[in-house]
């Protein structure tokens, strides 16, 4: 499918945020899901949601949580739509969230910005940068950062090769695509793809890379909490 197929409708496209928040954070070593751990005095996902609440162009934010997750019932402080439709993989959670967005009134030519709950250092400025860079684009795109380290190939604990890094970028989120195109791409790609861009690439399309710096990292390992705290403390000064 070509991106232009999605542009032929009379109503202007709106922007929706979809936050996959249904993981359990096994690599983080926390007692519960890492997105609810406190960072900078608040549950991590609060920072994520308040960044999106600060973006005027976002019509609605939908948060995908795991079935049975009671966090938002116990802490009802967000205007986002929270739906317990999480899947067993991130891609499954995103696909289910897209279905819920349609139920909430989004249509195929609307843009969806998919963003990890665990990328809590996102800012309204970065979200706006992505929207500005991609809303005139046929395909869409993602925030990303050029790789700074040399990349090694490992076999049994030893280096067997080095990969040239000049054209390598670290994919971040949000990743922004038309709802209809993304739904089709994920359906075709299956639920093992690790980001939306991979599914779109598998359709032969080339998402746009939008430089976002290194602070928008995903809190994945225990030490990432310390770094996230430090960044938030620096911003509060
Ligand atoms: N079945 C899943 C798995 C992940 N996620 C969400 O996708 C984002 C990125 O995933 P990741 O960092 O891998 O989170 P977890 O799956 O929670 O972590 P881990 O892989 O260490 O278990 C997170 O916000 C997570 O909550 C989701 O919505 N549904
Ligand atoms: C979507 C993502 O954050 C882009 O870097 C990443 O692919 C998520 O991967 P994970 O396997 O869920 O950690």
Describe this structure in words.
The chain is of the alpha/beta class. The protein has one domain: Spore Coat Polysaccharide Biosynthesis Protein SpsA, Chain A (Alpha-Beta Complex). It is 30% helix and 24% strand. Helix 3 packs antiparallel against helix 5. The longest helix is centred in the C-terminal third of the chain and has 15 residues. The N terminus is likely disordered. It binds cytidine-5'-triphosphate (CTP) and the ligand C[C@](O)(CO)[C@H](O)COP(=O)(O)O. The ligand C[C@](O)(CO)[C@H](O)COP(=O)(O)O binds next to strand 10. Its EC number is 2.7.7.60. Catalyzes the formation of 4-diphosphocytidyl-2-C-methyl-D-erythritol from CTP and 2-C-methyl-D-erythritol 4-phosphate (MEP). Belongs to the IspD/TarI cytidylyltransferase family. IspD subfamily. It catalyses: 2-C-methyl-D-erythritol 4-phosphate + CTP + H(+) = 4-CDP-2-C-methyl-D-erythritol + diphosphate.
């Amino acid at each position: 499918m070509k991106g232009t197929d999605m542009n032929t409708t009379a109503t202007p496209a709106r922007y929706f945020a979809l936050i996959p928040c249904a993981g359990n954070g096994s690599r983080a070593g926390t007692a519960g899901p890492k997105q609810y751990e406190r960072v900078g005095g608040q549950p991590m996902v609060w920072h994520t949601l308040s960044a999106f609440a600060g973006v005027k162009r976002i019509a609605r934010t939908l948060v995908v949580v795991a079935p049975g997750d009671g966090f938002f019932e116990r802490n009802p402080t967000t205007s986002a739509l929270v739906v317990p439709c999480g899947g067993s993989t991130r891609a499954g959670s995103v696909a289910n969230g897209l279905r819920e967005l349609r139920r909430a009134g989004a249509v195929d030519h609307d843009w969806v910005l998919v963003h990890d709950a665990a990328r809590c250092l996102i800012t309204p400025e970065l979200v706006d940068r992505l929207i500005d860079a991609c809303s005139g684009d046929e395909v869409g795109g993602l925030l990303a950062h050029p790789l700074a380290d040399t990349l090694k190939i490992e076999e049994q604990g030893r280096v067997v090769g080095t990969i040239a890094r000049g054209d390598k970028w670290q994919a971040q989120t949000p990743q922004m695509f038309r709802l209809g195109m993304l739904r089709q791409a994920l359906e075709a790609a299956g639920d093992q793809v690790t980001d939306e861009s991979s599914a779109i690439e598998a359709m032969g399309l080339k998402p746009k890379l939008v430089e976002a710096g290194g602070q928008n990292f995903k809190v994945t390992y225990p030490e990432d909490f310390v770094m996230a705290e430090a960044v938030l403390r620096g911003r509060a000064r």
